[in-house]
C-alpha cells in the first residue's frame, strides 16, 4: 500500500509536468471565473435573517407575506448568504447544512467510507470549506480533514480498479475528478515505462465533436 | 428566485467539458433583461430609502444578485473563450462549417484575431537562426520515424505532397506517407495511424 501511495504521488508529479494545463486549471478552481466554484456557491444553506427585508417575501416559499420578517429561517443559496453575512452589520446568520451537523459528523468520523457522498453532497469538501467558519465549535474543518484521510484508500482503489462504475459511484464530484486523473496518469506512466511507440492520435475536441455528431445523427 | 437562469447556463458548460455548445443567445438575453429589471427596482428603492431606512437591506440583496449574474455570465464567456482557443490548436485556422455556426459573431471575430496573432508569432519564430517560422501545432509528440502508414477514415479528396506527388485520399484506403505531411490530418481525424 505504501509503495502504491508513493507511486501515486510520483505519478501526480509526472502528471504536472506532462499536462501543465491541468495544473493551471486547478489553481483556477478557487477563482472568480471557476465553474466548480459557481456550482458550489449555488448550494443552499439554512440561514436566519437578523433584519426585516421589505419586498423579499418570495425568498421564503412558505411565507404568504410580501415582506420577510427578522428572525425567520430560510434556505438561501450560499452566494447570497455569504454576501449578506459580510455586510456590516451582517443581515443573516448562517447555520450548518445537515450533513455538517453533529449527527452526520459522528457518522463520518466513525466510518467515512460507508457514506455515499455523491448522494449526500456532491461538493462535500468545497461547501465544507465555506461553511466551516460558521461553525462555533470549529469541528467541521477537522471532520473534513478526517473524512478525506479515511476515504483516501477508497479513492486509491477507485483509481486502480477496472470496474470503474461501481467504485466511482459513492465518490463526490471532486473525488471523481481526482480518481479519473489518477487512473489517466497511471496509464500514461505505464505506456511511458514500456517505451512503446506513441501513435499519433486525433485531437481530443475533434474526436468528441465527432462522437456527439454521430449520436445526434442516430437520434434523428 | 434570483440568478437561477444563469445557473442553467453554467450547468451547460459543466456538462460538456470536452465539446463546445451552441452559443446560448436567448438565455443571455433573458439574463440581461433580469439584470436590467433588478437595477431599475434598486434605483427606485434607493431613492426611497430617505423615508424608509429598512429598504436599504432589500437594495443590498438585489445588488448581490446583480453581481452574481455578472460573475456567472463572465465565467460562461471565459470558459467558452478557452475552448475556442483549443479549437484553433485542434481544428486549425479554418473551422469546419458545423463548428463555425456554434460560435457567436463576436466569438468568431475573436477566433480570427487569435488565429492571426498565433500565425504572426509562429512566423516570427527562429528568424535569428535562419528559419522562416516554426509551426507550433506540429510535432506535439516526438516523431519516431520519417514515414508512417495511415488509414484514411473519410473521403477527403486530393492531397498534394511537398515533392509534387498527388495522393487520392479515399475512405478505407491505406497510404505510406511522410510523417510531417500527415500529422495535421491525423489530428483533424481524417487519417488514422496504423501501428
Helix content of chain A: 55-70%
**Average predicted confidence as pLDDT of chain B:** 87
Give the neighbour order of strands across the main sheet of chain A. 2-1-3
- CATH level-3 fold name of the domain at 34-95 in chain A: Methane Monooxygenase Hydroxylase, Chain G, domain 1
Could you report the average pLDDT of chain A, rounded to the nearest whole number?
Answer: 78
Write down the CATH class of the domain at 4-91 in chain B.
Answer: Mainly Alpha
CATH topology-level name of the domain at 4-91 in chain B: Methane Monooxygenase Hydroxylase, Chain G, domain 1
Morphology of chain B: elongated
Order of helices and strands of chain B: HHHHHEEEEHE
In CATH, the architecture of the domain at 4-91 in chain B is Up-down Bundle
Number of helices of chain A: 11
Looking at the chains present, what oligomeric state does this protein adopt?
heterodimer
- Compute the gyration radius of chain A: what is it? 22 Å
Largest interface: A-B, 39 and 51 residues
> Span from first to last CA of chain B?
57 Å
Amino acid at each position: 500500500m505504501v509503495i502504491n501511495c508513493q507511486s501515486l504521488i510520483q505519478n501526480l508529479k509526472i502528471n504536472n509536468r506532462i499536462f501543465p494545463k491541468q495544473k493551471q486549471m486547478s489553481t483556477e478552481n478557487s477563482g472568480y471565473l471557476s465553474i466548480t466554484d459557481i456550482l458550489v456557491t449555488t448550494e443552499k444553506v439554512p440561514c436566519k435573517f437578523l433584519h426585516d427585508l421589505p419586498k423579499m417575501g418570495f425568498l421564503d416559499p412558505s411565507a404568504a407575506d410580501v415582506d420577510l420578517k427578522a428572525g425567520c429561517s430560510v434556505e438561501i443559496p450560499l452566494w447570497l448568504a455569504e454576501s449578506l453575512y459580510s455586510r456590516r452589520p451582517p443581515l443573516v446568520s448562517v447555520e450548518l447544512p445537515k450533513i455538517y451537523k453533529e449527527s452526520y459528523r459522528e457518522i463520518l468520523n466513525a466510518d467515512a467510507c460507508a457514506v455515499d457522498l455523491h448522494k449526500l453532497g456532491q461538493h462535500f469538501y468545497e461547501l465544507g470549506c465555506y461553511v466551516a467558519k460558521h461553525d462555533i465549535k470549529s469541528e467541521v474543518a477537522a471532520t473534513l480533514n478526517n473524512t478525506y484521510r479515511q476515504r483516501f484508500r477508497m479513492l486509491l482503489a477507485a483509481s486502480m480498479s477496472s470496474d470503474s462504475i461501481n467504485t466511482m459511484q459513492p465518490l463526490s464530484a471532486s473525488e471523481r475528478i481526482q480518481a479519473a486523473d489518477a487512473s489517466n496518469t497511471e496509464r500514461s506512466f505505464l505506456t511511458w515505462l514500456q517505451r512503446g511507440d506513441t501513435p499519433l492520435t486525433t485531437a481530443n475536441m475533434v474526436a468528441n465533436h465527432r462522437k456527439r455528431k454521430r449520436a445526434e445523427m442516430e437520434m434523428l | 428566485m434570483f440568478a437561477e437562469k444563469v445557473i442553467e447556463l453554467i450547468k451547460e458548460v459543466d456538462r460538456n467539458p470536452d465539446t463546445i455548445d451552441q452559443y446560448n443567445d436567448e438565455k443571455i438575453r433573458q439574463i440581461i433583461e433580469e439584470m436590467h429589471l433588478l437595477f431599475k427596482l434598486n434605483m427606485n428603492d434607493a431613492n426611497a430609502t430617505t423615508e424608509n431606512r429598512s429598504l436599504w437591506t432589500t437594495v443590498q440583496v438585489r445588488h448581490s444578485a446583480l453581481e452574481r449574474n455578472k460573475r456567472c455570465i463572465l465565467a460562461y464567456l471565459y470558459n467558452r473563450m478557452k475552448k475556442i482557443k483549443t479549437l484553433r490548436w485542434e481544428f486549425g485556422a479554418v473551422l469546419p462549417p458545423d463548428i463555425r455556426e456554434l460560435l457567436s459573431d463576436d466569438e468568431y471575430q475573436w477566433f480570427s484575431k487569435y488565429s492571426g496573432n498565433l500565425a504572426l508569432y509562429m512566423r516570427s519564430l527562429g528568424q535569428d537562426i535562419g528559419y522562416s517560422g516554426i509551426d507550433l501545432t506540429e510535432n506535439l509528440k516526438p516523431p519516431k520515424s520519417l514515414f508512417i502508414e495511415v488509414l484514411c477514415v473519410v473521403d477527403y479528396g486530393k492531397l498534394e505532397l511537398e515533392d509534387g506527388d498527388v495522393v487520392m485520399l479515399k475512405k478505407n484506403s491505406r497510404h505510406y506517407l511522410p510523417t510531417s505531411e500527415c500529422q495535421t490530418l491525423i489530428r483533424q481525424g481524417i487519417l488514422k495511424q496504423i501501428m
